[in-house]
Input
Amino acid sequence: MSQPSPDTSTDFGYERVRREDKARRVRGVFDSVADNYDLMNDLMSGGVHRLWKRFALSLTGLRPGQVALDVAGGTGDIALGLARQVGTQGLVVLTDINAAMLAHGRDHLIDAGHVRGVEFVQANAEQLPFADGSFHCVTIAFGLRNVTDKQKALASMRRVLKPGGQLIVLEFSKPADALRPIYDAYSFRLLPLLGRLVARDEASYRYLAESIRMHPVPGPAGARMSGHSKWATIKRKKGALDAKRGKAFTKVIRELVTAARLGGGDPAANPRLRLVVEKARALNMPKDNIERAIKRGAGGGEGERYEEVAYEGYGPAGVAVLVEALTDNRNRTVGEIRHAFTKHGGNLGQSGCVSHLFEKRGVLEFDRAGLDLDRLMEVGLEAGADDVVESESAVEVLTDPRSFEAVRDALVAQGLEPAGAGVSMRATTTVKLEGAAAEQMLKLAEALEDLDDVQGVAANFDIPEAEMERISS
Output
């Protein structure tokens, strides 16, 4: 029997099948396992799948009254959690391509008392039947690997997200080499055996085990490290930041004065001041300079008073740019910032035009070379980190600002010293740039960062690391 050609085929477990046949065969698997799906998941994972679902739900950022979509969510576990987050004034839509799984999820939510504010739609993840920008959050848990065209499904999910919305994908990965023999025995002996004994369907559970192995592990191309973070990493390695240390001292002194004025001169009782002191030490600022700046701010008096101001605008190709400044003269500062935008292909916008595309996050950056990534993830997540993201040369641990210090201290205690650390604004969605637009955007970012009054610049550009290296060379 002839095999389908690579252009028209896809994987169904370890088997190659025609693309048009995969959805039908996956539907058959879930028709068979639907009635015992929750029980089998608990048996196969020891209940751990529920902990991972709980973790995914903790990342949604949903508020009461908002709208969420759960794709391939037939069991209803994620949809139930979403419904609790958005409340009775919000809306959750649960979709699944399989009618039996959808019915299973509907029964689950009804049994849990969630009748209002939840809708059920049988739909293909690759062709979601919703208008653009419909949802504040879209989730898919342990379902992406069963989709025929994963990129098409991801594009469809992103299309229905509102600007700044969250797309959360929970999926299996692959074990470390040392665990592979145990995992192989678990996957190809225990899972099919449980399928035969509990669900009386060994073949379907063998497919589920094989589909996990065939699902690609996200690599650097799938990382979502912010464009500004990648650019800062490259500049740091090239020594460009050291060349501007004098200007950096001036900016940190302003931060020290302002933090001490607002919260007092004791770093132990002033978290903001504590972080700025650590930033100053990272720049090798002399201790006397730090103490003088703190005394100047904590002493009150009529010395310089800096005002915190945020400016928003757009860079090349519509990139969102958020500029944070400390200034004693608003007219001077806004004039300098407007000039930088205009000179480098952007424009200064009105207050609120892009701020909704950013959120404040704790960020700990590590050089990738020689890093024990598994250990970093284990310690970081256990200490309360929200996420770990990768690029080709660096890894970032992201935290809630409130847990930043606890996560950093836990990592340092285990010998995992970050190359950079701080609390900053992060983009929640990105714009991909290449070529001339990428060059112009980086020139705008540098021009803004070079202004004395500017303390921080955040932008939602996504430029390939190789392109950044080329531009900076």
